[in-house]
Design goal:
With 275 residues, this protein is of the alpha/beta class. The chain contains 8 helices and 8 strands; from the N terminus they run αααβαβαβββαβαββα. The protein has 3 domains: 72 residues, no CATH class; 120 residues, Rossmann fold, CATH 3.40.50.720; 66 residues. The model has no long low-confidence stretch (mean pLDDT 91). Bound molecules: iron/sulfur cluster.
């Protein structure tokens, strides 16, 4: 339940059932049925189980859809919406990660001519993910933005450093991947990047993780990650072990895709022509 995200998923269900109900995908993109009908890019649910399960706010939100919960606001489009869609002229954005891509989408819908500069490939830090399961989900999000920005006419300049414009780079980036070989590595950190790098490190090293690695994950994600680690030979330990490389970094909160997308959305929504 909640993992039917595409038309072909829905059609498979209909081979064995009379009706299909989409769960999380409708939070990620409530226009799914219309977009399917007109073959438009659909924002995918990346099955992250983050903000839609973050019930301490007593509201359901979604990491990839910053408009969820803000339906009271007027729509963004230029014609007839009254949602601030009066944008005129050119806007440059520096950074083609999720923040920059979301900014480009919203500014374009508001009527601006958008140029997006990215020094590498679209997707920014998402391109560094090692966990093959996560990578598959997140690459669908990048694909969505690629198609949607193309449809909206955003000019995208890849492998190009932007010199001026709105800088769309998160305040804090995830730690960069370091290659190790024949080492003992102890991961005592719940940072998403380290959870992920263990998938790569285990190929050439002995990797230990403490219970802190699962801190902050919902039950399902913690369970699945634990299963995957066991399958790959990552050892889960109660107490710290001696290791060549020790990573200690346990956080209460940490940067997320949802925060970056929301930031891009709100900057673009409130943009009035000056940066
Ligand atoms: S928060 Fe994540 S899992 Fe939940 S609906 Fe949004 S994309 Fe899907």
């Amino acid at each position: 339940m909640g993992s039917v995200t595409t038309l072909s998923d829905a059609e498979k269900v209909l081979e064995v059932a009379d009706a299909v109900v989409l769960g999380r995908q409708m939070l990620a993109d409530p226009d799914w049925p219309i977009k399917v009908r007109y073959n438009l890019p659909i924002r995918p649910c990346i099955r992250c189980n983050q903000m839609c399960r973050f019930l301490s706010t007593r509201e359901v939100r979604c990491d990839v859809n910053p408009e969820l919960g803000w339906e009271i606001l007027p729509p963004l489009e230029r014609e007839g919406g009254g949602g601030g869609g009066e944008g005129k002229g050119e806007v440059k954005i520096v950074g083609g990660g999720v923040m920059g891509m979301e900014m480009a989408r919203v500014l374009s819908l508001r009527g601006f001519e958008v140029i997006l500069y990215e020094k590498g490939a679209l997707g920014g830090q998402l391109n560094e993910i090692k966990d093959p399961y996560k990578k598959e989900e997140f690459s669908k999000l990048i694909e969505y933005y690629e198609k949607e920005l193309k449809r909206l006419g955003v000019k995208i300049l890849l492998n190009t450093e932007g010199k001026e414009g709105i800088v769309a780079v998160p305040k804090e980036r995830q730690p960069a991947f370091k290659h190790y070989e024949n080492k003992t590595i102890l991961v005592n950190s719940n940072l998403y990047a380290y959870q992920d790098y263990a998938f790569e490190w285990i190929k050439n090293n002995e990797v230990y993780v403490t219970q802190n690695v699962f801190k902050g994950l919902d039950r399902n994600r913690a369970y699945l990650l634990e299963e995957k680690y066991r399958e790959l030979g990552v050892k889960i330990v109660k107490d710290r072990v001696k290791a060549d490389v020790v990573i200690d970094d346990v956080r209460k909160t940490q940067p997320s895709i949802g925060q970056s997308i929301a930031k891009g959305y709100w900057i673009a929504r409130n943009f009035h022509g000056v940066w």
